[in-house]
Every structure is written in C-alpha cells, then in structure tokens.
C-alpha cells in the first residue's frame, strides 16, 4: 500500500498514541517524577512521530531511512525511561499504565524496523527521484517478474529451473 500522507501511516498513529499516553501519565498530578525525567520522556516520545513525519516528507529513501532509525532510537529511549519508571516504588500505582506504554513503544520499534528493512531492499530511491521514465522502468520490471513467475509455474514439477525458483522462494 502506498501512503500519501504521514498521518495515515500506522506507525505514526501508534507513535502518536504513545506520545499522548506519556503526556497523560506525566501530566497526572499523582505521578511524581523529576522535571528532568518528565522533560526527557515527553521529548523522546514526541520524537518518534516527529521523525517519522520528517523522514516521510523528505522525498528520498535514504533520508527516510535515516529518520526511521532516529525514530526507532527515540522509541527505545522512551521504553528505557518507562522501564526505569516502572521500577520506582513511588510509581507503583502507575505500573499497569507504564507497562502499556512500554508495549506501545516496542510496537513502534518493530514497525519502524520492518519498514526500514523493506526500504533497504527497495530499488525505489524516493519521490524526489521518481520521473515518468523511472516509473515506467519500475512497471516494466514488475511485469517482467510476474511473467517469469507465471512461466516458471508452468514448468513440470521437478524441472531444474522450477525447482531452483521454488528453493529461492520465487514461485
């Protein structure tokens, strides 16, 4: 699926739920944490969605990848701070809320890793590099791959070419 706006990305939406959840926790007057911890965890949680948005808007795959890894680092930082908070005896009443936020941060990290892995194996260089010629070449590559797959499927089972394609996961 191709997304036209970063707001439609599932990972951005998860990151926003994470940030809102962190703010709900830190703004609760019963949640007594130091100013520096509050500032750091609010910043790191917001950094996840912000870096997804900035990378998405940049226009090249390489820039997007760089920002996805920054966002993933911020999700890890948020999770680490939540882990610290979870161990604090004075925050025992918030253990369940903190645990849920840690799960959201972990989900962000997994989604970001999956997206980054897919992008690293993609021949597309990004919006900024797309031209009519590059789009036609990509379409032609896809049609050729589909044709090759269909032809390989028509070969009898046990044929060396079909067997090789099956072993490589191409059909």
Describe the protein's architecture and organization.
With 171 residues, the protein is mainly α. It folds into two domains: 6-127, de novo design (two linked rop proteins) (Up-down Bundle), CATH 1.20.1440; 131-167. It has helices at 10-26, 35-58, 61-87, 95-120, 132-154, 160-167. The model has no long low-confidence stretch (mean pLDDT 91).
Going by helix content, strand content and strand pairing, the class is mainly alpha
How many β-strand runs? 0
Count of all domains: 2
Distance between the amino and carboxyl termini = 22 Å
Q: Identify low-pLDDT runs.
A: none
Tell me the name of the CATH homologous superfamily of the largest domain.
23S rRNA-intervening sequence
Number of helices: 6
Which percent band covers the strand fraction? under 5%
What is the average per-residue confidence, as pLDDT, rounded to a whole number? 91
List keywords for this structure.
171 residues, 2 domains, single chain, 6 helices, de novo design (two linked rop proteins), mainly alpha
SSE order and pairing:
Elements: H1 10-26, H2 35-58, H3 61-87, H4 95-120, H5 132-154, H6 160-167
Helix pairs in contact: 1-2, 1-4, 2-3, 3-4
């Amino acid at each position: 699926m191709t997304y036209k706006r970063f707001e439609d990305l599932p990972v951005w939406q998860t990151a926003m739920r994470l940030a809102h959840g962190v703010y709900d926790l830190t703004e609760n007057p019963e949640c007594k944490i130091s100013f520096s911890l509050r500032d750091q965890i609010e910043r790191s949680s917001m950094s996840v969605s912000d870096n997804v948005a900035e990378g998405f808007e940049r226009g090249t795959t390489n820039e997007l990848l760089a920002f996805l890894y920054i966002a993933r680092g911020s999700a890890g930082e948020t999770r680490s701070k939540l882990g610290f908070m979870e161990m604090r005896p004075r925050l025992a009443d918030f253990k369940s809320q903190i645990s849920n936020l840690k799960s959201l941060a972990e989900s962000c990290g997994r989604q970001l890793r999956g997206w980054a892995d897919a992008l690293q194996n993609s021949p597309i260089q990004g919006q900024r590099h797309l031209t009519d010629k590059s789009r036609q070449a990509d379409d032609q590559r896809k049609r050729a791959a589909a044709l090759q797959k269909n032809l390989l499927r028509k070969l009898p089972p046990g044929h060396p070419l079909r067997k090789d394609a099956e072993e490589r996961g191409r059909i």
